[in-house]
Amino acid sequence: xxxxxxxxxxxxxxxxxxxxxxxxxxxxxxxxxxxxxxxxxxxxxxxxxxxxxxxxxxxxxxxxxxxxxxxxxxxxxxxxxxxxxxxxxxxxxxxxxxxxxxxxxxxxxxxxxxxxxxxxxxxxxxxxxxxxxxxxxxxxxxxxxxxxxxxxxxxxxxxxxxxxxxxxxxxxxxxxxxxxxxxxxxxxxxxxxxxxxxxxxxxxxxxxxxxxxxxxxxxxxxxxxxxxxxxxxxxxxxxxxxxxxxxxxxxxxxxxxxxxxxxxxxxxxxxxxxxxxxxxxxxxxxxxxxxxxxxxxxxxxxxxxxxxxxxxxxxxxxxxxxxxxxxxxxxxxxxxxxxxxxxxxxxxxxxxxxxxxxxxxxxxxxxxxxxxxxxxxxxxxxxxxxxxxxxxxxxxxxxxxxxxxxxxxxxxxxxxxxxxxxxxxxxxxxxxxxxxxxxxxxxxxxxxxxxxxxxxxxxxxxxxxxxxxxxxxxxxxxxxxxxxxxxxxxxxxxxxxxxxxxxxxxxxxxxxxxxxxxxxxxxxxxxxxxxxxxxxxxxxxxxxxxxxxxxxxxxxxxxxxxxxxxxxxxxxxxxx
Length: 576
What we know:
- By secondary structure, the protein is of the alpha/beta class.
- Among the domains are: about 280 residues, ANL, N-terminal domain (Rossmann fold, 3-Layer(aba) Sandwich), CATH 3.40.50.12780; about 100 residues, no CATH class.
- Helices cover about 45% and strands about 20% of the residues.
- The protein contains 21 helices and 25 strands.
- The strands form 7 sheets. The chain has a 5-stranded parallel beta sheet, sandwiched between helices.
- β17 and β18 form a beta hairpin.
- α13 crosses α14 and α13 packs across α15.
- The longest helix is centred in the middle third of the chain and has 22 residues.
- The protein is globular and about 70 Å long.
- It starts with a helix and ends with a helix.
């Protein structure tokens, strides 16, 4: 279907989708942003006008086809509009992480040879100015927030709204050129360039085409039955591929509304106010929210605590089955509805999840207890497995086949294979074009047939077809007895406990696993107060005998050499 639609040329790019949305539902909300405590809204028609004026202004500044436009700042409509405006001009948007230090930004700005930089505020402008002595190709810096910018040298600084005003004034002179450039965009034109995190070396610029973005958006939207009346909260970094596909690719294909919070500090409040129907968060967000709930319940009155424990026990028993549409007894259904009235409903409202139809988590393994907690409340939380080079989607979990111990089946249009070492390979319409100016890395990651090496080890279950991730392929080792050792598997087992924030496990070449554990100070501090344990520092609390004793018992109970050996043998016999 995606190929047929794009073949007609009408939906071959993000600007083309924007034009379609204006024609078909121009008065529907496209963006919302909370500023000074008030939600502002832009329709698709208003969005198209904002984007077009900015694109005309960029043409007036001299933007050329193929130029790279860096965009740095928090999630806000103006920054998304800058990405689409750059595409209209035949340029390539390059969103950067706003919390990156100047040195990290300097590498990306230099590597992509950015001529234009769009900054959200003074902080981001200062970072760019700091590196301009070593990067001489930046010609124009455009800022959105005027606060603190009055006394700066504006020879090469431009206010965002001034560029739009210049575009409005020059529309008779430049609109034909803009329309020509928009018409030149096709399925194979570059849509965006996103840089990898650089945790294992220098960041690499992942070039994604319109084909990658549009087909991934169409396939994933159909898979989850996304609707035009859906709402998402755009709060994750714009430089991350997930935000781009959710807030631009899927949003422009489906036509749902993208909501931008006022700030990171108000995100949870804004989440409750918007009540998104389509929501994504990494496991850490769900873990933090659950920890907060459990701390509050420990401090609640006896009656409220007993009612919470009673109904949550019932929810864990029948909630996931009800969510999957499976048969449940009449009495269990009635009791679950009572729980919805007294516990589950108010709790979901507090968390901001009252309207969530589809929720996703990815990036790290989420604890089964945490995963099942949210699903028992009736929240359709699912896992996906993906990466930037795949335009997010490699595997997804179909409704009715959601499990905590797998990452699902191949996403629509995706092929999977496991090589002899257990490494996972895929190819799909979302497979990236190349690493920018890095043919060696491109060749080592993607072969001539389009198969991409993920660097992860795993296996596909024979009966269900679900993929299980074991660890990074390079991190899988062997214990002293020859059993395969996957440290991430053990670390995730430990992090399932709410009192553990992080864990690092060693076992390669050893007879037993050894773990470094970082406790969650918020959760343990609350526990210490309830048990009248005095402590003056983090170190003192971690060394308290009353605290370490249950952890030693927990370690022996949950992670022991025989269990580790069994887990590795299963993985070896199935995948290797």
